[in-house]
Structure formats: C-alpha cells, structure tokens
Amino acid sequence: MQHSELMVTPMRRDLSRHGVLELRTVADVDEFMDQAGSGTALLIVNSVCGCSAGSMRPAVGLALSSSVRPTRAASVFAGQDVEATARAREFLAPHPPSSPAVALFRDGELVFLMPRNEIQGRAPEALAARLADMLRTHCSPDD
After folding, report:
1. Which terminus in the chain has less CB density within 10 A, N or C?
2. What is the per-residue DSSP string for the chain?
C-alpha cells in the first residue's frame, strides 16, 4: 500500500536537498545505471520505515557533505515508486531486497551495500562515519 505523497515528500527531500536525484520510473533507473558504467554511483533505496530510514537519510546527508563524493547519487522510494524500486533491486542482485539500503557502484560494479540490518538501531552519525569511510575507499575527490 502506497503512503500519501504528502507524507513521503519530506522524506524524498531529505535526500534531494543533498543532490540525490529521484528515480521514479524504470527508465530513470536504466538511465542512471547506464551512466553508472563510468565513475562512482550511489544508489539509495529510501523508505518510510522510521526506525531505519529515519537514521539512513540523515547519515547519507552527512556523508555527502564531505569533500569526497560519488560521481552521481540517486534514490528510489520503496513502496512508492514500485516499478523503479524493483528495477533498481535487479542491480543489487544476488542480495535480497532491503528497505532502506545504500549501495555504491564503481564503473558499473557493485562495490558496497549497506542493507537494512546494518542500518537499523544505529545512530545517523555512526552510519555517516561508515558511509564516509566507504566513499573515501572507493571514490576520489575528482569524482
């Protein structure tokens, strides 16, 4: 069941205000992943879940505020943009579906995945530190 767009709009903005592109259609996902074939691409599976996504969104914002950023960043919203999310999850295979989740691709290859079970119950600052470490490991300041 989809939630009211009035409810999820602020949750979308939590990421878009940090330069995260919203992918709402299968075509959006395909175009993003085509571009992910070069450089680094952060793909976020956003969700309404307060206990996990409520920590994940600010953590992503904190991590993206550093000088080392991916070439591009985008999100799909699980339970809202159903087809786009299903398509995005195909790129995360063989990992099971997870909402929320944060994934990083380098030159089209999945190099990092933080699923819900690694997000849930952790403070945004701790998650941000892990994401920032991941960005420093896989991205360059030139990305």
Report:
1. N
2. -PPPHHHHHHHHHHHHTTTPEE--SHHHHHHHHHHTTSSEEEEEEE-S-TTTHHHHHHHHHHHHTSS---SEEEEEETTTSHHHHHHHHHTTTTSPP-SSEEEEEETTEEEEEE-HHHHTT--HHHHHHHHHHHHHHH--TT-
The pLDDT score that the predictor gives to residue 125 is 95
User: In order of start, what are the domains of the chain with their CATH numbers?
Assistant: 5-138 (3.40.30.10)
Active site residues: 49, 51
pTM of the predicted protein model: 0.92
Cα 97 to Cα 17, 64, 121, distances in angstroms: 26, 24, 19
Residue with the two structure tokens 């993003």 = 32
β 109-114/101-106 pair status: antiparallel
